[in-house]
Amino acid sequence: MNELTISDSNSGKRVHPYRWGVISGCGLIVACVTYTLSAFIAPAFRRICLPFVPATPVQMDNIAKILLAQRKSDCSSTLGPIVDLGSGDGRVLINLMQRKDLGFTRGVGIELNRPLIWYSCWNAYRAGMGRPLLKFRCCDMWKVDLSEFQTVVVFGVDSMMSELENKLRQELKPKTFVVASRFPLPSLPCADSIEAGPDSVYFYRF
Asked: Which of 13, 20, 46, 60 gives a 20 to 30 Å CA spacing to 120?
């Protein structure tokens, strides 16, 4: 049986169709890798550079500890809906939602990096969690209305904390809890904190 070939009109040579498949496949792989890498490089060109740095187990444990302590001190039956600003791969929010002793009613992760959103959804699926209890949104955290949430968690950088504090003051309702990891809010005194170097967390009650 004769093999099907494709003629290259420019060179006069015949190109095997499988070769076109390999070329197309390689092009698709390059495009996917470029798109994924660009999502991680793009933050460096934004007004406020907020790179993805995975939370450590110590950080996640400190966040849970400080929230649990506040829930007990306030005798709250629930910490209500929670939003994680800059949720990354979703590990912090998933961990908090799995903690039944914290009593969150629902969780929303806000992340601008779409590949991380996909990975977060996959992590949530593997953890047996999904909508409507837990969801991740690909959007700019500065454009999200925070008034619907009772608890806010944020992993920020020092250069953004002043602007973030202004946003929190304008949008949060009374008795809203805020946990800032790594960097504190610049002018608002924290109600509690766990000092642990890069794993430090700061708690605020609005």
From this structure: 46
**Rounded distance, CA 137 to CA 109, Å?**
6
Strand ranges for 25-168 from DSSP E:
80-85, 104-111, 134-138, 151-155
133, 138, 140, 141: CA torsion to nearest 10: 20
Q: Which has the closest alpha carbon to 56: 180, 205, 206, 198?
A: 198
Mean pLDDT score, 92-106: 94
The token pair at 136 is: 């991740």
Token readout for 102 is 């914290």
Task: Report phi then psi at 118, rounded to 5.
Answer: -60, -40
Distance CA 107, CA 151 (A): 9
pLDDT digits (tens, 9 = 90+) for 60-82: 999 999 999 998 888 777 899 99
Beta strands in 39-87, from DSSP E residues, in sequence order: 80-85
pTM here?
A: 0.77
CATH class of this structure's domain 57-205: alpha beta
